[in-house]
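Notes taken during the Thursday session

The instructor put the following on the board and asked us to keep it in front of us for the whole hour. The protein is Basal-body rod modification protein FlgD. We were told not to look anything up and to reason only from what is written here. First, the residues (137 in total):
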Amino acid sequence: MAVDFIGGASSQLQNTVVQQSALGQEEFLRILLAQLQFQDPLKPLDNQEFLAQMAQFSSLAQTSQINERIDTLLTIQATTQSIGLIGKTVEVQTTSLPAVGTVTSLAFSEGQPNLTIRTADGELLTGIRLSQVSVVR
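Then, after some discussion, the predicted structure tokens were revealed:
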């Protein structure tokens, strides 16, 4: 899940790393199973090698859990950031021009915070993502 932050930074890169870790874990299991299937019955896998591989697998599983927890923390941080913007004047990048206004409300769509901003001329801008906020005044 990509989490937006003020100024356009996002966790897309982190998601790529998480996907690569998951792929690495699947590949590791395939290699381990193939190794066990095709081992020479007269020369079974050495216990130390097997334990080392199991330790690597355990490390991969723990890394995946850490990545999930970091994702949760990023979501909480984005929520906290967006709540802190209510009542503040912000400059946002819209499809046409940058706009300046006051954040009046906050809604969540697909787990992502979306801001509603009232400009000086009374226009309401809805569905503004945190990544669109360039300046907080």
